[in-house]
Amino acid sequence: MSIDTSAVSGQIVCVTGAGGFIASWLVKLLLEKGYTVRGTVRNPNDQKNAHLKHLDGANERLSLFRADLLDFESLKAAIMGCDGVFHTASPMTDDPEKMEEAIIGSKNVMTAAAKAKVRRVVFTSSIGAVYMNPNRSPDTVVDESCWSDLDFCKNTKNWYCYAKTVAEQAAWAVAEEKGVDLVVVNPMLVLGPLLQEAVNTSVVHIMKYLTGSAKTYVNAVQGYVDVRDVAKAHVLVYEAPSASGRYICVESMLHRGELVDILAEYFPEYPLPTKCSDEVNPRKKPYKYSVEKLKSLGVEFIPIKQCIYETVRSLQQKGHLPLPSKLQQ
């Protein structure tokens, strides 16, 4: 399918935290579609951003701006003159100190976007801002109207979900106050091939089972989605005039036991765990969720088994995992 670039030629968009896992794929897709992209990074000359300079179209239409989420002026410099902003830079952390950064960063990006009068801001949030609620009945379908309970996040010391929720709420507050058109994507755990050299937090989630560092798997469920679909979802909600509000982004939910089974099916040579760390309680069941909203815009998801397979192959190719032949020796 050829990509129609006529609508975007000359459009300038800013992607914050451009060197990150999701952001790198987003930059790649935006360049392929013909956008001129300004990426904010902490240090444009850092080796960890080198992969961006090799993307198709980067020479002509990608510029990297030195910016810090806590430095409003640096963000404003990158965003002034842009048609749209993709705010993907947010610390993946359980550190309460970093939470403040995520919240201030949200406000700074939204305020700069308002000053620049951009057409739309697409904000990368998380399912962490949606599902953490102890009072939800198991029959409730988790959809875009659900919000995580901040007290519950605090009491269980789930600072990641707390930060994601507060940062997203801060973005909505500024959007309302300053009249910014904001659309939010809420992905579950993001896997898929890496464009960047370093391993990111979400991919470590499956790598630990292949390296033998996890001797058992936990009795838990997790939703998964391919990074390429997350990038597509961002572009789609930016371009679709009808897009509004939040969009849950997930392909399917798996129990850790099912995840390990899929890994064993494709990569039996690795020292995968075969036991659950909790053999007393029944297997945790996935909660019900809806992705109808995103599907109605035309998103078709890469099947989770293909996504898992390609994630591991990517880790092998980048030298993060030994190749099966080496394991046999």
UniProtKB/TrEMBL annotation:
Signal peptide: none annotated. Residues 13-244 form the NAD-dependent epimerase/dehydratase domain. Pfam families: Epimerase. It is an enzyme of class 1 (oxidoreductase). GO terms for molecular function: cinnamoyl-CoA reductase activity; oxidoreductase activity, acting on the CH-OH group of donors, NAD or NADP as acceptor. GO terms for biological process: lignin biosynthetic process. This is cinnamoyl-CoA reductase. The keyword Transmembrane does not apply. The keyword Disulfide bond applies. Its EC number is 1.2.1.44. Belongs to the NAD(P)-dependent epimerase/dehydratase family. Dihydroflavonol-4-reductase subfamily. Keywords: Disulfide bond, NADP, Oxidoreductase. Pathway: Aromatic compound metabolism; phenylpropanoid biosynthesis. CDD domains: FR_SDR_e. It catalyses: (E)-sinapaldehyde + NADP(+) + CoA = (E)-sinapoyl-CoA + NADPH + H(+); (E)-4-coumaraldehyde + NADP(+) + CoA = (E)-4-coumaroyl-CoA + NADPH + H(+); (E)-cinnamaldehyde + NADP(+) + CoA = (E)-cinnamoyl-CoA + NADPH + H(+); (E)-caffeyl aldehyde + NADP(+) + CoA = (E)-caffeoyl-CoA + NADPH + H(+). InterPro entries: Epimerase_deHydtase, NAD(P)-bd_dom_sf, NAD(P)_dehydrat-like.
